[in-house]
Amino acid sequence: TFSATIKNQGAVQSGAGAPVWLSINLNNDETWDDSHLSVFNLPALAPNTSVTAMIYTYGGDSSSAYPNGWPWSGSHTARVCVDLPTPTTVPAVLANNCKTKSFTVP
Fold first, then answer.
1. Helix (H, G, I), strand (E, B) or coil at 57
2. Per-residue model confidence (pLDDT) at position 47
3. Rounded to whole angstroms, how far apart are CA atoms 106 and 100?
4. pLDDT for res 73
5. How far apart are CA 72 and CA 80, in angstroms?
6. Ramachandran region, residue 35 (left: φ > 0; alpha: ψ -120 to 50; beta: rest)
7. Are 24 and 32 in contact (CB under 8 A)?
8. How far apart are CA 13 and CA 15, in angstroms?
9. What whole-number distance in Å separates Cα of residue 9 and Cα of residue 64?
10. Which long-range contacts (CB under 8 A, 24 or more apart) does 93-102 make?
């Protein structure tokens, strides 16, 4: 399961419906594999409030794209971006709209 905690760091309330995008770099080759994108739409967030979103489940239940678990071993990188690639709102700072995290699957 991939989840992300999204925080409105701005001074005004964010609008509802901003998309959250999950991209996976399967080979750590600086290529984001778009076939694994997932979208979650955020609720409106007051300044300095956050929400944790389960974005995608890889394995563990029959409704998953991969009910037997994550099929790729090795090192990978996940990237979560809010309101990108086509912004629906005009945030004051776009530089903090993405976060990456590396992980290894045996």
1. coil
2. 93
3. 20
4. 82
5. 19
6. alpha
7. yes
8. 7
9. 32
10. 93/9, 93/10, 96/9, 99/4, 101/77, 102/28, 102/75, 102/76, 102/77, 102/78
Sequence-ordered list of residues with C-beta below 8 angstroms from that of 43, at least 6 positions apart, any chain? 16, 51
- The model's pTM is 0.72
What single-letter amino acid sits at 57? Answer: T
pLDDT in tens, 58-92: 544 545 555 566 677 888 888 888 875 555 555 55
Asked whether the beta carbons of 5 and 52 are under 8 A apart, the reply is yes
Q: Which of 41, 1, 35, 50 is nearest to 17 (CA)?
A: 41
The one-letter amino acid code at 80 reads V
pLDDT tens, position by position, 2-41:
788 999 888 888 888 888 888 888 777 777 776 556 677 8
Q: Which position has the token pair 């778009």? A: 34
